[in-house]
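Translate structure to sequence.
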């Protein structure tokens, strides 16, 4: 294998930054979904989901997400709701903590992030074996890539802020392209 060029390094930095941004957004979304689910229960979730599905179908009548949302919520009982809320709150909290640790740039934060991502990946692989699905497979691929990129940045002594600056600098300064 050849050396990684400056341009290749910028692409890897951009993918790393986008992966961390994806984790941040998905963690916040999970927290935002978990709290009302826990507080208001399955009936409120069904009502909210029905409204969301109606809106999705008015925007795009062929939306494949709408029926999946309806079916997923319809199967939740009160026990399932509590478990789903606990999962969303825990998973979302860990994701947000990973991003915050990476933002701090500490070496221990990187190690904690790598450990949490490895646990997520193992759980996703177990779920993939027990109940195969495209969504879980995609999440596993994203987490594996983010784990590898986080390990790469840790080994090189880089930080998320440094990767961000490199990406922004390459977009602003044509001499770095």
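Result:
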């Amino acid at each position: 294998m050849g050396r990684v060029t400056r341009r290749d390094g910028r692409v890897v930095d951009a993918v790393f930054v986008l992966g961390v941004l994806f984790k941040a957004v998905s963690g916040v979304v999970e927290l935002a979904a978990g709290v009302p689910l826990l507080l208001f229960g399955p009936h409120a979730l069904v009502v909210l989901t029905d409204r969301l599905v109606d809106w999705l179908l008015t925007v795009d009548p062929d939306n494949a997400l709408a029926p999946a949302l309806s079916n997923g919520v319809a199967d939740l009982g009160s026990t399932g709701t509590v478990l789903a809320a606990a999962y969303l709150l825990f998973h979302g909290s860990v994701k947000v903590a990973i991003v915050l640790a990476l933002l701090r740039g500490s070496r221990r934060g990187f190690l904690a992030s790598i450990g949490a991502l490895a646990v997520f990946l193992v759980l996703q692989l177990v779920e993939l074996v027990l109940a195969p699905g495209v969504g879980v497979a995609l999440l596993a691929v994203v987490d594996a890539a983010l784990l590898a990129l986080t390990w790469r940045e840790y080994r090189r002594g880089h930080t998320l802020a440094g990767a961000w600056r490199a990406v922004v600098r390459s977009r602003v300064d044509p001499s770095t392209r």
